[in-house]
Amino acid sequence: MKVQRLAETAAKGYTTFGSMWEKGSVKRNASFSVKYGDKEEMLQSRVTAFWPDGSVKWAAHVVDAEKIGDVAEVLPVLNQDDAEGAMDTCNVKESESSFDITAGKVSLSVNKKGSILFNDLSYNGKRLAKCAYLQVLIENREDEYSKKTVPFEGVVEKAEIIECGITRCVVKFSGTHKTPCDSRIPFSIFMEIYKDSPEFRFTHTFFYDGDETKDFLKGVGISFDVPAKGEQYNRHVKFATDNGCFNEENAMLLCWHPRVEPDIYRAQVAGKRLAFTEHKDEDINAVKASKEMPIWNDYYLFQDSSEHFVIRKRTNKDNVCYIDCLNGNRAKGVAAFGSDCGGIMVGLKDFWQKYPSTIEFKDVSKDTAKATIWLLPPQADAYDFRHYEDIGYSQTYYEGFDVYGASAYGIANTSEYSIRFFDELIPEDKEIDEFYQRVQNRAFYYAGAEYLHSLRAFGFWSLEERKTKSEKFFEQQIDKVFDFYKNEIEQRKWYGIFDYGDFMHTYDPYRHVWRYDMGGYAWQNTELVPTFWLWFYFLRTGRNDVFKICEAMTRHCSEVDVYHFGKYKGLGSRHNVRHWGCPCKEARIAMAGHHRMYYYLTGDYRLMDYFEEVKDADVAVGETDPLRFFFDKKDMVYPTHARTGPDWSSFCSDWMTWWEQNEDKKYLEKIKTGIADLKETPLKLMSGTDFEYDPETSHMRYIGDRATGGSHLSICQGSEQTWLEMTQLLDDPEWDKMLADYGWFYTLDNAEQNRLTDGRIGQRQFSYPFMAAGVVAYAASYYDDEKLGKKVWQILKDAISSETGDDTFKEIVVENAGNQEKLREITGISTNVAAQWCLNTIVAMEFARKWMPEEI
After folding, report:
1. Which of 126, 137, 373, 795 has the most neighbouring CB atoms within 10 Å?
2. Above pLDDT 70, what percent of the chain?
3. Is 277 helix (H, G, I), strand (E, B) or coil?
4. Average pLDDT, the chain
């Protein structure tokens, strides 16, 4: 499999990427090598998914981007155990309390339990960091003005080595933050240690388990204690800013009296190590001045919004204030501290996008300095998880149900950061910038659209073609919609630690804003799967700007919109003003299918845990019946309900993912059980869509042809993509036909549907046919039905001509609106329509392109 480094990603640094293989072509015991130029070497790899026959479907590989360059080829190698065993690998020596890790020149001791993550991190025998530890600050409030901040200490309850090979060792820390009498905010951290590398990468998740009425989150951070020595004038800090770097010294050799030679100060500012003698007057003056001036001890860079940061510092005295050093716009999220014994660089990914954020250096004038990355900084107001109301507005604000259901208990947030150690006094700006590129734009290798399309990666989607006027028209619409949303992220400032990565749901053309304050019309929360649309768009284009938006959406939607523990575990919250605000807790929001693409393309470890969290989402609906307000419990035979879509279809997505990753046939049998139940119904997949459901047996009980939420919900929430991918895996011709029949049936008028079903359909509407256009196109292909194939394109064209009474995606410019001099807006835009139209068009072009007219 040939891969190419994605444009605009870092050309240096270690990274992980995914490879996909044709069914049956790579045996499960294969190793992998990488060929670049005239060289070939073994790769540290792991299998991330299997085909049903047990062969390798997806694998993840660790590489050094600088070494392999822009283009390389991954090759499967059989019977490589002996060769790999002879290679120099990372080593782990386990004791009762720790793991002692050696990765070439790198060594450290990882604690299995306790408040210290690791001790004595060394490189080439030199100790670079004494230890690392976690902290959380909880602000308790009696009222708006009575506040008390309580510090919690991060306590590791379990550390485990989850990967150790020829290039990398990965440690997972799990635990929670504690005081002597309380416990709050669990955490999960993956630490990546690379052989012979002074750079370490972390993926850090924290979970909210507080009472949102009183537990306000004031800080979440990790600190690294590092040695510091030498004169104060040889100690430096650097912060990457909008342009260049802010660079200062603990004791600046710039003073009124005694006079220090300008060349000395110039050399100091340039980062040169100064060494003075007692025999030069200018040296004597510099030494004397350094002992009589303020010594700066603490610095921090605080990004308080997406548009502003401030750098502050204070001296090493008690009870003194911070002073402002620099104000700016968007800091790069990278900083360094160094002294005579070298120092540390730290970098937080998406620093300003996920504001508020802080990088802090404390005690830089002492023997041990502390570098802290604050994912949520104490300089900001404590985060308030409360809802905007204490009742529901199901009708006026489209909030699902009238009951209050806003709970943040069980949600999470994941950030990525890196640290790097250096020997020099302070790195040059160029080195800081290269580190920034690795943190913010990590190297990513991609196999290309043609290759992944040929293997039907993630199901069915089409390659770009613009040969005819019609193809150009449809492709231009897809491009136009993406460009609009890309611009909206910046224009509307869709940033912030709990918001970045999501889109808004519905637009208000009169206020010239999205309906940010109107219940179910505010944040999208994966509703109608913009995730699939954007990932398919990336697969087709291979563009880095698309990838970054997809990546941000994966990080947000898989953490903030989902419950990771508690009674809603495996479910997510439907769209609302707060991401966790809607009383509808749905499997569709959390289903694995939203995020499989990112996992298989990057090998991200956090998502491996996520798929385990959602695999039993059907158990959660036993507690939270999605149709609980429509049916009387006493009349039910099974304990809960599941609609064919989006409930059972979402379970299928979770089960399919777990099955292919772990070869756990229990979850395959769950899928087959549901299909068998559907086969027994009068109308197969057209039956229902409401069924009773038993989580213990995975059986669905037919209760008639009723759809409480409309038939379109059974197809528009990722069902189409999940069910189509299942046709590749199940080897069940009857299932394939059931799905084709569903697509064929969807576009019939109500009278014809009732004629064919002896009146079973009744008045049930198969609304929004463009939301089913992909499966309709599948039906056209399955039956080679030219009439139906042509109908697909008419449906899609009509949808964007009439869905809002005008050109649905027509963009206009409004002056002095939305706080913009020239506001770009689409007056009738809905993310539901945009996502579903683009997604279905991409899928339809795979199945029904031959019936697309030359002009439209």
Report:
1. 373
2. 98
3. coil
4. 96
Measured distance CA(812)–CA(822) in Å, rounded: 10
In the structure encoding, which two tokens stand for residue 58, read together?
């997806």
Q: Are 30 and 71 in contact (CB under 8 A)?
A: no
Asked whether the predicted pLDDT for residue 776 surpasses 50, the reply is yes
Residue 127, amino acid = R
**What single-letter DSSP state applies at residue 348?**
E
The CA distances from residue 636 to 618, 628, 630, 639, 649, in Å, are 17, 11, 12, 7, 22
> Which one-letter amino acid corresponds to residue 621?
V
Within 8 A by CB and 6+ apart from 244, the residues are: 429
Give 455's DSSP letter. Answer: T
Torsions phi, psi for 216 (to 5 deg): -95, 130
| Residue with tokens 């010594």, as numbered in its chain | 295
- Where b means 16+ CB within 10 Å and e means fewer, 654-667 reads bbbbbbbbeeeeeb
Positive or negative, the CA dihedral 442, 461, 672, 624 is positive
840 burial (CB, 10 Å; 0-12 / 13-18 / 19+) is buried
Q: Residue 331: phi, psi to the nearest 5? A: -70, 155
Length of the chain: 856
Q: How confident is the model at residue 282, as a pLDDT?
A: 81
- Is the distance from CB of 621 to CB of 587 less than 8 angstroms? yes
Helices 530-541 and 544-557, packing angle to 10 deg: 150
Alpha helices in 663-718 (DSSP H): 665-679
Distance CA(235)–CA(338), nearest Å, equals 6
* Sign of torsion over alpha carbons 104, 107, 112, 116: negative
Q: What is the CA radius of gyration of the chain?
A: 29
What residue type is 734 in one-letter code?
E
3-state secondary structure (DSSP) of residue 840:
helix
pTM score, whole prediction: 0.97
CA distance to 69, 122, 162, 420, 606, per residue, from 194 (Å):
18, 13, 14, 11, 18
Asked if residue 85 has pLDDT above 60, the reply is no
Region class of 525: left (phi > 0), else alpha (psi between -120 and 50), else beta: left
Instruction: State the Cα–Cα distance between residues 18 and 445, nearest whole angstrom.
Output: 8
φ, ψ for residue 229, nearest 5 deg: -155, 170
The Cα–Cα gap between 649 and 12 comes to 41
Q: What's the pLDDT at 329? A: 98
Which residues are within 8 A (CB) of 144 and not within 5 positions of it... i.e. 6 or more apart? Answer: none
- DSSP symbol at 145: S
Measured torsion, CA atoms of residues 150, 155, 157, 163, in degrees rounded to the nearest 10: 130
Q: Is the pLDDT of residue 82 over 60?
A: no
Helices (H), 184-320: 262-269, 281-292
pLDDT band at residue 807 under the 50/70/90 scheme:
confident
